[in-house]
Amino acid sequence: MTRPPVDREVRHELDTVHRELHAAHAKLDTILHNQQTIKHNQEHIMATLADIQAAVAAEKTVEDSVLALLSGLAQQLKDAIASNDPVAMQAVVDSLNTNAAAMAAAVTANTPTPPTP
Question: pTM of the prediction?
């Protein structure tokens, strides 16, 4: 069975529809590519946010530890002064000096050196 000839107008309409479908397909490909890029960027941002949250939590833990240390040393000093015990007072002073040196060393070790001009 042979197909009837397609007239020029129908052929033109079919070609137009084909071009429009091709253009729509290209746009969909672009949209899908952009969506993948957005998803990748979002995952990267979430990983970065998780890193920041972990750093904040660690910093909070360090701050809480330092506050507990200072509070404990302050109480020890108050107790030593109240008991008028020079040996106990010297022990608190020694402890303060040891902890101050350890904190200074930690700060120095974790402080980046500025670039020289």
Answer: 0.44
Query: 95 with 74: CB under 8 angstroms?
Result: no
What 3 state SS string does the chain have? Answer: CCCCCCCHHHHHHHHHHHHHHHHHHHHHHHHHHHHHHHHHHHHHHHHHHHHHHHHHHHHHHHHHHHHHHHHHHHHHHHHHHHHCCHHHHHHHHHHHHHHHHHHHHHHHHCCCCCCCC
> Can you tell me which residue has the tokens 């990267």?
44
| Domain residue limits, the chain | 65-109
Band (pLDDT 50/70/90 cuts) for residue 48 is confident
Do the Cβ atoms of 92 and 72 come closer than 8 Å? no
